Each structure stands twice: as structure tokens, then as C-alpha cells.
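A favour between colleagues. Tell me how you read the following sequence-structure pair.

===
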Amino acid sequence: MRRVGGDSLPVDAGPPPMGDGPHRTGKVPPATGDLPRAERDELLGVDAERDVPPRPLWTRLERLRPVALRTALGCALAGYAALALGAERPYWALVTAASLYQANVTLTWSRAVQRVVGNVVGVLLFAAVIPVAQLGPLALVLCILACNFGAEALIGRNYWLGSVCVTPLALLVTELPGYQPTGELVTGRVVDTLVGALVGFAAAVAVTDRRAGRRVERALTAVHRAREHAARLVAGPAATPAALEAARRGLAAAVVDLRATADAAAGEWWQRALPQERVVLAEQAAHRTLAATVRRQGLLPDPGTSTHTHTEGASP
């Protein structure tokens, strides 16, 4: 018997081989058979969630609105501030501000620190390599290529290390038309970086995201409805494969949206406490229901059980 949302139902246990379902990639940990049933269902539900592609960008625009406002305001103010200070290259401050903005204020602060530290260390690296780069055009090009290689190799893995290479790369490129005074370049880069980081982060703090908590509540409601719908289909004897697949994908997408919404809201300042316990319980219940749905579809064998299986409560 299978138990979903408090209802027991018989389940046909003749699933096709592993290669016929979304778990053909083998994402389910091989040692799940040694775990308790509840933990196996959690892992299976997580795997089913990851198998569903993300929702289109247009469905996530509301969550991106605060980031867009912060970017527009911060870049404009950073550019004006750099111009007011008489910066020769105010776009450096603007680019610094634009690079800061993440999903919430906490992540934006982390990126600002990484940007400033990376640029300061990068300026020191530029000061060290510029005597070599000024030996001739070939030496300059080789230094640019080396910095570009470092930036490409590091920027996707560690932002501040990537910035260490991007900064001398940007400064060396300014040497292509003709050699520039090193002191002016170093001073200008440091000042513009500090201005862009300070003004950009101030804009992020000023543009508050007061709707973050309400988006979490809406996401919780969406997960609850999607889970109830999937549980009803799993419990029904006449559910079609297409309906089960649509329910599985809808529930997985709702869980992904809930986690992204909760993570973004958790890093916002100046707001009430978030229902973290409810989010965790909703995710766990959704994962159990996803596991029940996958097994009902026959996409994965139920390890360690006989012809009839039993899934612990799919409700929190």
C-alpha cells in the first residue's frame, strides 16, 4: 500500500528500467537503499525537483524588480558622483556599481567587499607588471593575454580572484594607444572603485524590498496547492501518465520557486522574520510527494520493498 496525504492506495510495482525516466542520469545516490525510507524519499524528491527545467524568465520578473531598480539608481548615482569628483574615467565607478547587485542586500554587500578587495590587489599587481609591459608592444600584448587568461579561468570560480586579473587587464588596455602615467591610473582606479562600491551599495540599501515576505507566503501557498494536486492524482486509480507528469513538473517548479524566493528574502534587511520552519516543512512534504509521484509513474523502482510499497506521509 502507498500512503499519500493520509490515504492508502495500492500501487502497481512493475516499473520499467532506470533508463526510461527522468532519473536515467543516475542522480539518485547509490547508497540510498541503506537509508531509512523517509530519507530515501527526501533524496528521490530532491532529484525529481532538480530534473525539471527552470521556469521562463518572465515568470520571475517580480523578484527581479528590486534588483533592476537598485541597478538603475546605483549606476546613475555612481556615474554622477565620479563626474563630480573630476574622475577622468567615470565609467569605472559605474561599472563597479553595476557589478554589485545580487538577489538581496546581503549578497550585494558580499559582492561589494569582493570587488573592492579584488580591485585593490589587482592595482598592486598592475604596478608590479607595468615595468615589464612597457618594455615594448610585444611585452604589453603578452601581459594582456596573461591577465585575460587569468580572468577567464578564475572569474566563474571566485569573483574576487577574477577581479584581481580583470583590474590589471583593464589598466593595461589603456596603455595600448600610448603609455599612461602609472600613478594616475592607479589612483583613478582605486578612487573610482571606492566611489562605485559605496554609492552602489547605498542605493541597494535605499531601495528596500518590502514585498519579499509576501512573495514567500505566495510561494508557500503555491507549493501547498501543487502538492495537494499531485497527492490527489497519486491517490486516484485513473490518473493518466500525462496528468502525473504535469503534476510532477508543476510541484517541482513550485518548490524551486519557493527556495529561490526564500533565499532572496532571507538576505533582505529591514523586514520581519521569515517563516523559515514553514518553508523547510513545505519543502520536505513536497519532496515526499514528488517521490510518491515518481514511483506512481513507474519511473524508478522502489528499492528494498516488495510488490506493494508504503510511502510515509506526504503532508508535513
Remarks:
- The chain has ten helices and two strands.
- The chain has a mean pLDDT of 79.
- The first helix runs from residue 37 to 51.
- The radius of gyration is 26 Å.
